[in-house]
Design the sequence.
């Protein structure tokens, strides 16, 4: 039996690490004034029913992430949106999503997702948000945003309508689909953009699809991933953040650390590999803890990221579930789940 | 209908070890606090003793009155010493024995933990500390004898641990099932509910989505998921200032402010709900799902008592978590709360069904 006085004492101690105001993790070796936090929201899939009616569950997921991100204290330096703000890329969906996003207090950068793109090849998105790929510098870190979900011209132009093209690209396991890629134009731009950047400068890249090959059938995949990894290869310190997969993933290839974002809309499972489908899924070490598959926000959420000396610590905020923290482990030199990498929690098996 | 004799015996039999009523599971009893007749009787006496307040006129039973379904109905928020008001509606003790956490925000894990809080809350029973209670139970001859009999302890060996255990044991006897719903649903008596109530049950299980949180099992129903949800009550009052309220709360918490005092004396902190216990932003404004058993006699409703009638409650949910259907839905509201599109007949049936959850021992209170 916990006495209430003891409980309060304990709660007070806990508050230092886990409470709002949420604080930036300061590492002693870091140049602390260059440490900063940004919030990362992704995959809201805002979906119009008709007129001003939108699927409420997806609206709520995004609204909630926005409201919670506004509570970060100290305020995040900026907010990233990881793509797929819309479901079928109509102006109404994009506008509705951006209206919800407008409640965020702070500068927001956007990544293009395939659901935003394939109806009108990103026309309305670009009209509202500008360039589809770009870079910026912040507190000594060079940030790059790529549009990783384009594909061949041949595939792009073979459809009778934008709706048809969008419909095919929106589905999983659709044999008529095509692999995502960054493409020649952006890769050439990337090389040029990075040319003057020193090897020691921390690089953070945002893309919608993972810039690594995981599972082709669901486009957890970027076809020219190896070429992009090669361009990034000379830097000491590279972090890639991506959306699209609607789950927590982390991986390291060479010098590049990969981290995914949860969706605010719905979770995808870790793909099972069929014999027929190409996949390079790394071994699953920490299964997704699904608090309750019947709970409408189960395994969705948003995240914020502390950047310290170019290293990234991710805090995943999950409603009605245990938050997860993935941090750079300086002993192993890899990103690791701070709680569950060693002590794993059994996934719920009865549904 | 039941005989008057049976009603009376049920009403006053709470000091005995009852068989489990229809529709309820066995009461969970902690291994270190087994139920005994003498302990229950002692807890009953402690529960009703107004000397355990700074003014000498407030007992546990003041806000948890058996005649009012173990609440202080019709007050919206409870009144303690000197008519001081708290921030929350008194939750019923009926079937609290089945709850996995106590208080609206679940800040205590069990009845034992809960029972000691109100004595020392400045807007409840107002004692500075628990010593005045111990002074009484260590010297009052009836208590001295009872504690000796129940715990084999006397003098300084009697502490709040024993007081809390006795009160909790008494509260574990305040269980009530056996409602028309129980006879219809679990007892197989198709005549136990009328047509409207039966239609209302379908609304409860279906389009009304009530059962998502007010859960039922195969053979029993507690009508709570024991979880915490922001359903849109009260939070609109703080939503625009939530950052500064949270910061101020965290600051005073670091200074050692008592959680109990903070939530009952500061309206804006109260509205933070479960967050003050877990520090999780996803639980801002979330409150525990109460049971809906005997809800007919425990109004007004919600953690702040802001909805007066069951019709108001049904309308609130039907509007998707807002009192007026044109009000904006707060972004922190749970995604499970959404407009239900119930028609007037369905709403009336649902209310009738809720009234079929009244246990016979509280049917008299319901008629008032």
Sequence:
């Amino acid at each position: 039996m916990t006495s209430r006085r003891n409980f309060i004492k304990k709660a007070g101690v806990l508050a230092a690490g886990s409470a709002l105001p949420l604080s930036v993790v300061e590492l002693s070796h870091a140049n602390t004034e260059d440490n900063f936090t940004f919030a990362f929201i992704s995959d809201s899939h805002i979906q119009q029913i008709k007129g001003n009616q939108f699927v409420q569950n997806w609206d709520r997921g995004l609204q909630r992430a926005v409201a919670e991100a506004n509570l970060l204290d100290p305020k995040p330096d900026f907010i990233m949106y990881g793509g797929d703000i819309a479901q079928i890329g109509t102006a109404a969906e994009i506008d509705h999503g951006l209206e919800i996003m407008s409640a965020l207090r702070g500068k927001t950068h956007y990544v293009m997702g395939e659901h935003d793109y394939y109806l009108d090849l990103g026309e309305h998105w670009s009209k509202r948000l500008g360039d589809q790929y770009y870079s910026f510098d912040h507190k000594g870190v060079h940030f790059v945003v790529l549009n990783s979900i384009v594909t061949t011209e041949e595939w792009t132009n073979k459809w009778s309508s934008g709706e048809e093209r969008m419909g095919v690209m929106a589905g999983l396991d659709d044999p008529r689909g095509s692999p995502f890629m960054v493409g020649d134009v952006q890769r050439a731009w990337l090389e040029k953009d990075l040319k003057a950047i020193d090897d020691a400068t921390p690089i953070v890249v945002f893309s919608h699809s993972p810039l690594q090959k995981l599972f082709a059938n669901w486009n957890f995949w970027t076809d020219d991933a190896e070429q992009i990894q090669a361009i990034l290869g000379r830097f000491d310190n590279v972090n890639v953040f991506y959306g699209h997969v609607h789950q927590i993933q982390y991986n390291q290839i060479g010098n590049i650390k990969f981290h995914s974002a949860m969706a605010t809309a719905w979770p995808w499972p870790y793909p099972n590999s069929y014999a027929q489908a190409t996949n390079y899924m790394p071994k699953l070490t920490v299964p997704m803890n699904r608090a309750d598959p019947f709970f409408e926000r189960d395994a969705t959420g948003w995240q914020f990221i502390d950047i310290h000396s170019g290293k990234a610590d991710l805090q995943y905020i999950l409603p009605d579930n245990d938050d997860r923290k993935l941090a750079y482990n300086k002993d192993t030199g890899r990103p690791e789940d701070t709680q569950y990498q060693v002590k794993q929690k059994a996934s719920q098996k009865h549904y | 209908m039941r005989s008057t004799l049976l009603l009376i015996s049920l009403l006053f039999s709470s000091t005995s070890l009852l068989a489990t009523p229809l529709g309820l599971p066995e009461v969970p009893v902690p291994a270190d606090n087994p139920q005994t007749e003498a302990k229950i009787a002692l807890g009953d006496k402690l529960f009703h003793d107004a000397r355990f307040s700074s003014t000498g006129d407030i007992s546990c039973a003041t806000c948890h009155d058996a005649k009012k379904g173990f609440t202080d109905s019709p007050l919206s928020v409870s009144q303690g010493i000197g008519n001081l008001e708290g921030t929350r509606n008194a939750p019923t003790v009926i079937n609290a024995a089945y709850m996995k956490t106590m208080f609206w925000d679940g800040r205590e894990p069990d009845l034992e933990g809960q029972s000691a809080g109100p004595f020392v809350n400045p807007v409840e029973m107002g004692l500075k500390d628990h010593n005045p209670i111990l002074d009484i139970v260590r010297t009052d001859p009836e208590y001295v004898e009872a504690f000796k009999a129940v715990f084999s302890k006397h003098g300084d060996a009697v502490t709040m641990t024993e007081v809390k255990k006795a009160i909790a044991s008494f509260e574990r006897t305040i269980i009530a099932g056996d409602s028309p719903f129980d006879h219809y649903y679990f007892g197989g008596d198709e005549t136990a509910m009328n047509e409207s109530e039966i239609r209302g049950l379908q609304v409860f299980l279906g389009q009304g989505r009530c059962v998502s949180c007010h859960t039922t099992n195969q053979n029993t129903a507690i009508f709570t998921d024991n979880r915490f949800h922001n359903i849109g009550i009260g939070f609109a009052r703080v939503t625009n200032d939530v950052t500064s309220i949270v910061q101020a709360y965290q600051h005073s918490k670091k200074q050692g402010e008592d959680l109990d005092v903070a939530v009952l004396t500061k309206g804006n902190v109260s509205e933070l709900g479960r967050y003050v216990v877990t520090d999780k932003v996803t639980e801002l404004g979330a409150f525990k799902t109460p049971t809906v058993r005997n809800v007919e006699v425990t109004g007004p409703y919600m953690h702040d008592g802001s909805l007066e009638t069951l019709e108001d409650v049904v309308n609130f949910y039907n509007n998707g978590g807002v009192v007026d259907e044109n009000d904006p839905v707060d972004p922190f509201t749970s995604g499970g709360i959404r407009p239900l599109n119930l028609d007037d007949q369905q709403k009336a049936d649902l209310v009738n069904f809720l009234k079929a959850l009244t246990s016979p021992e509280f049917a008299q209170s319901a008629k008032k």
